């Protein structure tokens, strides 16, 4: 078995702006299974090559200087192609980043910007988060980021389209599946697929296809992803790891650790800090 060399990730959270979080990591192995974020997220490739994948497109090769813009709810994974891969990922507070969401929303969905000005300004935002600067300084960097995003959106040569935004039909199907997704998220035990299918008048196999078409994930994978998103919120707020695992219905802490590691590429303890 090949030896895996990694560097422990750094997590920085702003005390001035709720839910503003920065991760800086260096990896040499495949570390992420397909997952989503529940907020606008911006990734920077600092060093090495990696591959961005998702359910609605082929793989996209990433290089140093690329900026990956990921709207909430879009399934993706990004893993190193070969050798050392160093990257940053910023998760933005929804209220604070409202104009950034507008500046980056469009038909392309998840996409890669190849713009030195965007890369530099996202780096400035990240440095401000890491230094835990006051709200006024963060606000100045946010305005600068919105400006460079708008400029980059006007220059199509700087944008590599990847995953498209949902269509009206997709949104209608998502609405129909809400009872299923609610049960998957909140039932203490994993609901039987036949029971879920009956909720929305589908067969078991129609349900599996429908959930994957709407979410990009199978029902079980979607359930795991939703629970890990909630686990991240709980751990950021200071919840104990054992309490988090229990409240989210994991069979034991070992199971929780395995699933958390597969989605977040670090342990619950390292993430909680």
Automatic annotation (TrEMBL):
A Gene Ontology MF term for this entry?
Answer: sequence-specific DNA binding
Q: Which residues form a coiled coil?
A: none
Q: Report keywords, A-Z.
A: Activator, DNA-binding, Transcription, Transcription regulation
Q: Which InterPro entries does this one have?
A: AraC-bd (IPR003313), AraC_XylS_family_regulators (IPR050204), Homeodomain-like_sf (IPR009057), HTH-like (IPR037923), HTH_AraC (IPR018060), HTH_AraC-typ_CS (IPR018062)
Q: Which Pfam families match?
A: AraC_binding, HTH_18
List, for all copies, the residue spans of the domain called HTH araC/xylS-type: 175-273
> What is the protein's given name?
AraC family transcriptional regulator
